[in-house]
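The material for today's practical consists of a large collection of protein records. An example says more than a description, so a record of this kind follows:
***
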Amino acid sequence: MTDYKEKMQKALDNLQSDFSAIRAGRANPHILDKLKVDYYGTPTGIQGVANVSVPEARTLMITPWEAKMIKEIEKAIQVSDLGVNPSNDGKNVIIRFPELTEERRKDLAKDIKKKGEDAKVAVRNVRREANEAVKKANKAGELSEDEQADEEKNIQKATDKFIGEIDSMVESKTKEIMTV
């Protein structure tokens, strides 16, 4: 049972990391987490080659540890789906985030709901997997009918708990995005 709860928790953690990458009108260094730059032939996260700071509410400043990384960082940001255009002052890469339009906020809200649904599907798949394991154990004689019913109830309780957490995460992130 703990094995399956861990898998459900991973679905929740993945959703949390996806949500941290969605910007809500203010600069968040975590939106760069999934971007990779070519660092001596190795794809490396931007935080692995530079300092990322937030000097203003809607501005990110990336200060590479090596000056030659400026072009690589700019290129990674431009080809990403962030929807921003970086600039540089020779020492730093600067990203200014425009104010979110109403239409963009609605698109982000739809994306948040989709990611939430995907997480729920992942949790339900773990539930199905756990229920199949319990049925197999019953057929093998390792569990009685009552024990199987109890385990299935426990699995359903865990599933309900995780889906409730996903719903509340989706709701709070949607509210954060829609707040001007």
Observations:
- DSSP finds four helices and six strands in the chain.
- The longest helix spans residues 102-139.
- The two ends are 43 Å apart (CA to CA).
- The chain has a mean pLDDT of 87.
